[in-house]
Design brief:
Blueprint lengths: L2 E3 L5 E3 L18 H15 L3 H23 L2 H32 L5 H6 L7 E2 L5 E3 L4 E8 L2 E7 L2 H18 L5 E6 L11 H6 L7 H14 L18 H5 L2
Parallel strand pairs: 6-7
Antiparallel strand pairs: 1-2, 3-5, 4-5, 5-6
Helix pairs in contact: 1-3, 2-3
Length: about 250
Amino acid sequence: MSHSIDPSGSPTPRRRLFSRKPKPQKAKKTGRMKQIVEVFKMTRRNDPAVVWFMLLAFVGIIAVGLLIGLLIDNIVTLVIISVPLALLAAIFILSRRAERAAFSQIEGKPGGAGAALSVLRRGWILQEQPVAVNPRTQDAVFRVIGRPGVILVSEGPATRVKQLVDGEKRKMARIIPNVPVHIVGTGRGEGQVPLAKLPKQIQKMKKTLTKQEVYAVDKRLTALGTKLPIPKGVDPFKARPDRKGMRGR
């Protein structure tokens, strides 16, 4: 390091012109293993039996691998193959049980049917907000459009929510008179479908429309609009009815 001379005659070290700036810490990304652990904890709280099902799947596949290895006199290779398969089986069981646990947490809560419908795959058009809602009772009707036609999914006691469903059917009958309309009630009552089984129940419906017809139906219903006393983007279950709009202007 070079030195400079101060007035007293003693050498002083020359200061560096540039100082090193501390490197910004990278945001810690949640690892896949951490996500799996969090899902496992959530599932175990709601479904303690998940531990035994995962162990049974893991040990069962390892046992089958060992048995095959003994039969063909190649245990090492079969163990190497069976361990990853056993892990995949355990994670698969965890994902299925976690889905059930998640549905059990939202079942009976406002908006649960809409959350259950959101897991439908491509080919379905879901209205994010309910097309009909009773702010007092929090009963709601959600709409999903697919190749089976239009499906109205009600949330609330069947006898109480029937008025909302019938009102939506009358509106659609004027716009799409020849399109099948299906009614599915969610809940644990008689004739109702639990949230965990709702997506499968809808996917099993008979297909009657083409893909082009599905988009055409959605376009016509979008043009119809949903004149609810709910501002767009506001939680429908925290909204208050627009009394002026209900009386007419």
